[in-house]
Amino acid sequence: MLEVEGLSVFHGSVRALDGVSLEVRQGELVALVGSNGAGKSTLLRTLSGLHAPGAGSIRYMGRDIAALRPPRRVEAGIAHVPEGRRVFAPLTVEDNLMLGAYSRKEKRDRLAQELEQVYALFPILRDKRSLAAGTLSGGQQQMLAIGRALMGKPRLLLLDEPSMGLAPLLIAEVFNVVRRLQKQGMTILIVEQNATAALELADYGYVLEAGRVTRAGEGFALCNDEEVRRAYLGA
Question: pLDDT digit string (tens) for 16-29?
Answer without folding.
Answer: 999 999 999 999 99
